[in-house]
Design a protein that fits this description.
The chain is mainly β. The chain has two helices and seven strands; from the N terminus they run βββββββαα.
Length: about 170
């Protein structure tokens, strides 16, 4: 198969109760991430996928391990760590009535790309952090407050008071 996220289930034979387990490493396709964090395109995804024949289709369960790369949403420091997710989906041999866009077995093959992508995206942190108590950046000058927690600025006055300040200094 040209796409490593497509699995042949020919050996499963389409029989209920038959199992097939496949371990494989696949390069990550595009779209496995959010704006601040995701799986880099082409990086390795280690897959352990189990296929179980179940009457009118195949029950697919699996685990995936991968590397996430991104930025902390508070301090913008680079993030790079290993993560994992589990996924499951029922793939029908033919579309059942009333089912909107069911996952289908196509020519004795199952493409897990969408199932895996959906699960990875659901599991990604919406606001990734370098640590739970990240202090972020100074809103005035952009200094990383994790590296300089005592950083501060003199209290700024409202510019509308400048006239009174100059009057006070002259008297």
């Amino acid at each position: 198969m040209a796409n490593p996220l497509v699995f042949s289930i020919h050996d499963l034979g389409g029989r209920s109760g038959q199992n097939l387990e496949i371990r494989r490493q696949a390069p990550a396709p595009e779209g496995f991430g959010l704006e601040l964090i995701g799986i880099p395109v082409g990086s390795a995804i280690d897959l352990d996928v189990k296929f179980e024949g179940a009457g009118d289709g195949v029950w697919v369960t699996g685990d995936a391990q991968f590397q996430l790369v991104g930025s902390c949403s508070r301090c913008l420091i680079e993030l790079d760590y290993d993560d994992e997710t589990s996924f499951e989906e029922f793939f029908y041999f033919s579309a059942p009535e009333g089912e909107e866009e069911p996952a289908l077995v196509t020519e004795e093959a199952i493409d897990i790309t969408e199932v895996l992508r959906d699960q990875v995206l659901v599991d990604l942190p919406f606001q990734p952090l370098c640590k739970p108590d990240c202090l972020g950046l100074c809103p005035t000058c952009g200094v990383n407050l994790n590296e300089n927690p005592d950083h501060h600025h003199d209290a700024e006055t409202d510019p509308r008071w400048d006239m009174l300040k100059s009057w006070q200094e002259s008297h």
